[in-house]
Each structure stands twice: as structure tokens, then as C-alpha cells.
Specification:
CATH topology of the largest domain: Rossmann fold
Shape: elongated
Number of domains: 3
Helix content: 25-40%
Radius of gyration: 24 Å
CATH class of the largest domain: Alpha Beta
Strand content: 15-25%
Number of strands: 12
Order of helices and strands: HHHEHEHEHEEHEHEHEHEEHEE
Structural class: alpha/beta
Number of helices: 11
Strand order of the largest sheet: 2-1-3-4-5-11
CATH architecture of the largest domain: 3-Layer(aba) Sandwich
Length: 348
């Protein structure tokens, strides 16, 4: 009696992974058309039992939007609008292509729980809002058996698609604005819980100073909690201990900037007369601070829409498509928290 061919044997003959064969033989998406046909041809030629399941089921097309909170330093109540913009952009793009979008939030990161949810969802693919995830966390997603795209973070060496803001060019725009306004002593306030974006913004800040002819001075580098109350308390302690303050400060997000402005005022500094402050994110509250906050705006809707488009392409083409790392640039939104210093040159 002829032995029935196994999944492992089909995978070897087709020069693909057993996981790819399993997806095809179970009628699931995630494998490109050429590879799918090659696998099916081998299965037919060897009379694989259960081949009837390989016909994709007709069902409503669906994508997942998965918001993962790891420590809550960034993804918290202060960033509801930030998260909502990502969801809106993804929903609009998905809808234009006939996909529904299922939104799920995980209040803590349990890798096995997240992977199990995605794999059992019957969705065609997933957009992962992974702001708080570090590089080691991303490795868990190698066990996911549908295409995924990460947004709001970027790890160049990981074998996944990423869409993020271009932190380097965006921070350069902010630093260049401060230099055009006459500032030469410029500090940075970053979060004491490092994320991918915070790391890239700090590196971008240092490089931007160098490109504008300013030597970075670490005595103007501060680290605080990323939440509003924590940023306020930490900066207040820093100032009360006699820290020297530059003429301008770049904060790695708006929440930190707002907390720092409150601390500066309470310690007797006028913003912007004594210290100019720039944030990042352009949250709705940024326009309502006193003074209104100059900040960097990057379109969250554009990022998530781009991610959905990339995800659809990945669903169609499968594993043969090279992984992409896409960055969206930002612009400075000028308000009242930056002072023009007399004698400043208009050009760098």
C-alpha cells in the first residue's frame, strides 16, 4: 500500500517551510500564489489525503489591529488620541479594500496569549501597535502564522515589516527650528523607560546638534518618567537639585514636555522667556497648554494606512516579498513655547 505523503515531505519537495504547507493545505492565507500552486501541485501528484480542505473558504476578509501595552509608560490615558488616530487610519484603508478591522488591546504583554489570539482569529493578517515592545519581544512573533506589520517602532534587523515615523529627520527639523530661533545651548529630556522611538529620537538629537555645528553637552541631558505626573515630579527634583538649564529643551514627547513646563514654572522659570520647550507628537492637548506647545507632528493616520497597504501586499505575495522598513517624516508645528533670541540668523 502506497504511503500517504506528509506535510514535511511536501515542504521539502516545494522548498518551503512546513508552516507554509500547513497554511496552504488548510485553505488559509499568508502564502503567495506561485508558492501556493507549487505546494498544491505536489500534493495532488502524491494524492495527499484531505486535499479538499486546501480550497480557501469564502468568508468576509478581516484584519486585526492589536494594541499591546507592556508597561504603560507611553500607551496610557494620556495617549488616547494618539492611539485613536492609528486605528482611524487603519480602518479607513482597510475599508477601501473590503476588509473589516477587529481592534483588540492587551493591557499587559503575555507573548503566548497574544500569539495564540492572532493565530486563532481566522484573520488574514494583523497590524501590531508595538510602541512599548523591545527587540527581544519582537522575536515571539515568529510563531505567528499570518502576515503582520508593526507600527510605531522599528528594529531594522528583525524579519518583519515595520512602518514608523522618521525620528531622525523629524528631530532634525525640531533642532533646526531652535537653532534658527537663535538657541545654541539646547538640552533634551527623554524617558527613563527606553522605547524604540525614544532611542532613535535621542540619537537623532545628538546627530542633529552635530549637523548644526553644536557640540552636545551631557549636562543638558535629562531623563524623567514618561507619564505626565511622573515627568513633572522628576523634573522638579532635577531642578531643585540645582541642575543647570539651557536656553531651549527638546522633549521626546508632548506629555513629557507638559510635565516639564509645569515643573519649570514652579521652580521660577518662565516659558519661553527663560527656557524654550519643544515637544513631539502634536497631541490635541499641546495646543491648549500655557503657553501653547511647539511640537513635531507626524501623521499617525498615514502611518497606519501605509501599514495596512503593506500588509495587504504581504498577504497577496507571501514570504517571497522582501521585508520593508518604512519611515514617515514629520514637521514642526510652531506655537508660543519657543522664544526668538535677538541676533538669530534666519538660515543655518
Amino acid at each position: 500500500m502506497k504511503k500517504n505523503i506528509t506535510v514535511a515531505e511536501i515542504a521539502k519537495l516545494a522548498e518551503v517551510s512546513p508552516a507554509a504547507v500547513s497554511l496552504v493545505l488548510n485553505g488559509k492565507p499568508g502564502v503567495g500564489p506561485e508558492t501556493r500552486e507549487r505546494i498544491l501541485k505536489i500534493a495532488r501528484e502524491h494524492s495527499y489525503k484531505g486535499l479538499e480542505k486546501s480550497v480557501p473558504r469564502k468568508r468576509h476578509k478581516a484584519l486585526l489591529f492589536v494594541n499591546i501595552v507592556k508597561h504603560g509608560q507611553i500607551l496610557n490615558e494620556n495617549h488616547k488620541a494618539f492611539i485613536a488616530d492609528y486605528i482611524d487610519g487603519a480602518q479607513m484603508k482597510a475599508g477601501t479594500k473590503g476588509y473589516s478591522l477587529e481592534v483588540t488591546a492587551f493591557p499587559q504583554f503575555e507573548p503566548s496569549e497574544v500569539v495564540s489570539y492572532i493565530n486563532s482569529s481566522d484573520a488574514d493578517g494583523a497590524v501590531i501597535l508595538g510602541t512599548e515592545l523591545d527587540e527581544s519581544d519582537i522575536a515571539y512573533f515568529l510563531k505567528v502564522n499570518v502576515p503582520i506589520v508593526f507600527i510605531d517602532l522599528l528594529y531594522p534587523h528583525m524579519p518583519f515589516d515595520f512602518v514608523d515615523m522618521n525620528n531622525y529627520s523629524s528631530v532634525y527639523n525640531a533642532v533646526s527650528h531652535l537653532v534658527r530661533m537663535g538657541h545654541k545651548n539646547i538640552g533634551i529630556v527623554t524617558g527613563n523607560r527606553e522605547t524604540s522611538n525614544f532611542m532613535h529620537r535621542k540619537l537623532g538629537f545628538i546627530k542633529s546638534l552635530e549637523l548644526t555645528g553644536i557640540k552636545p553637552d551631557e549636562k543638558f541631558f535629562y531623563s524623567v518618567d514618561s507619564r505626565y505626573e511622573g515627568a513633572y515630579r522628576d523634573m522638579k527634583v532635577i531642578l531643585s537639585q540645582g541642575a543647570e538649564v539651557p536656553s531651549a529643551i527638546f522633549c521626546v514627547n508632548d506629555i513629557i514636555a507638559m510635565g516639564c513646563i509645569r515643573a519649570l514654572k514652579e521652580e521660577g522659570y518662565a516659558v519661553p522667556d527663560d527656557v524654550s520647550v519643544v515637544g513631539f507628537d502634536n497631541l490635541p492637548a499641546a495646543s491648549m497648554t500655557e503657553p501653547p506647545l511647539t511640537t513635531v507632528s507626524v501623521s499617525k493616520k498615514k502611518i497606519s494606512a501605509k501599514a495596512v497597504g503593506l500588509l495587504m501586499q504581504r498577504i497577496k505575495e507571501g514570504s517571497r516579498m522582501p521585508y520593508e522598513k518604512i519611515m514617515i517624516g514629520g514637521e514642526v508645528i510652531e506655537r508660543k513655547s519657543v522664544k526668538y533670541l535677538a541676533g538669530a540668523e534666519e538660515d543655518l
